[in-house]
Specification:
By secondary structure, this protein is of the alpha/beta class. The chain has 16 helices and 13 strands.
């Protein structure tokens, strides 16, 4: 098979979960099935060298690059309204092209696969950036009509897509995300942990949230829960570190910490580099992720792979990912989340148990397993 991958999620200055999902699946597939021919499709009006350098870690000497010297932003904007053929830019050599970020453009040669990660823009539209919601309102249904297969990342997301778009049920296939067990593993280098802490102004013990600072992550309620927990502990407790770049409508989250007068007990950092994620996770007493809605929820799985106890919410796909290897709290109750903090903080035995169980569960979500399932979707499609 000649397989093309849309490279857009891989070339941004700051990679998101969509990009890491594509990176994990494509690099693992190229290693597992070297008999196939793989290409990254890349729009680039300028700065080719920068984009190729960002792609380099994911090519592993096995994936080629097909560059169209045109603005990807301009093409995506135009193709939402006009049927500008994708094949005009990338030709007709691919047997199959996979788009990892919701949208299949018009006029793609060969078979098409699209990954639809979640239905957040339908379930929680108020938490989605206006531009993103507009794009999905206009383009997602057309995209799924164009696609020969729709891949999603959890059974929960499959049920959500069927709820809003029942006509596409027959096209749907579930392929769980994975975790890089080389990148995410227990860190025994205390100097590395301390250096990462110092780089972000973190002192002493801490609970860690890592992800975009945005409403969908339920961070205002997390801060309320932490305030309740802190009162019960009479101020003697680990700090709460909220690590990540600013997202959509994040002002209320920062204001909540000020409103509750938490001062230096709640620390906001900037975007965390990929090299620092594992040391920061491994230095935490627990990883906290009370999100309202996740198609999959990679950060809790990454923390589990690091041997870090996890506190998460009972919402969306998160129970499907963590199983019985985390403290699971009601997403809509600050008091219940505060009790979760207390359970983890007060019991070293529980922390050790969650650490061991979490590492074992993370092993079942390898990128190799994910890539094999995705490859089976490709084979099924190309054999039709």
């Amino acid at each position: 098979m000649k397989i093309a991958f849309d490279a857009v999620p891989l070339i941004g200055e700051k990679m998101t979960g969509v990009g890491w999902c594509e990176a994990g699946q494509t690099t693992a597939m190229a290693k597992l099935h070297p008999e196939e021919k793989y290409t990254f499709n890349l729009f680039s009006r300028k700065d080719d060298e920068i984009k190729l350098e960002r792609l380099k870690p994911f090519r592993a000497g096995k994936i080629g690059v097909n560059i169209a010297h045109f603005s990807g932003f301009a093409y995506r904007a135009a193709s939402t309204l006009l049927p500008v053929p994708y094949s005009r830019f990338f030709g007709k050599s691919a047997d199959l092209t996979h788009f990892f970020n919701f949208i299949v453009p018009p006029g793609v040669h060969g078979k098409t696969v699209v990954t639809v990660h979640d239905m957040a823009y339908k379930a929680f539209p108020e938490t989605v950036r206006g531009r993103t919601k507009y794009m999905l309102d206009i383009g997602l249904k057309k995209s799924m009509e164009r696609a020969d297969r729709i891949v999603t990342v959890s059974e929960f997301s499959k049920s959500e897509i069927i709820k809003y778009y029942p006509q596409f049920e027959d096209k749907l296939r579930v392929v769980h995300c994975g975790v890089d067990l080389n990148r995410f593993a227990p860190c025994t280098d205390n100097d590395l942990i301390e250096k990462a802490k110092q780089n972000h102004g973190i002192e002493g013990d801490y609970f860690l949230y890592l992800g975009t600072i945005e409403p969908r992550k339920n961070l205002e309620r997390l801060i309320e829960a932490y305030s309740i927990f802190l009162r019960h502990r009479k101020g003697k407790a680990p700090k709460l570190i909220l690590a990540g770049g600013k997202g959509w409508l994040c002002e209320g989250i920062y204001n909540k910490a000020k409103e509750l007068k938490l001062g230096r007990r709640v620390v906001f950092t900037e975007y965390i580099s990929s090299e620092e994620i594992c040391p920061l996770m491994c230095g935490a007493e627990a990883f906290v992720f009370p999100s309202l809605y996740e198609g999959f929820g990679m950060p809790p799985l990454e923390a589990m792979a690091c041997g870090v106890p996890v506190l998460t919410s009972d919402a969306a796909s998160l129970p499907e990912v963590v199983g019985d290897c985390a403290v699971v709290c009601r997403y809509d109750s600050a008091e219940d989340i505060a009790e979760g903090f207390e359970k983890i903080h007060s019991s070293s035995q529980l922390r050790q148990e969650l650490s061991q169980k979490g590492m074992e569960r993370a092993k079942t979500f390898s990128w190799e397993s994910s890539a094999e399932k995705l490859f089976a979707v490709y084979k099924e499609l190309c054999d039709e």
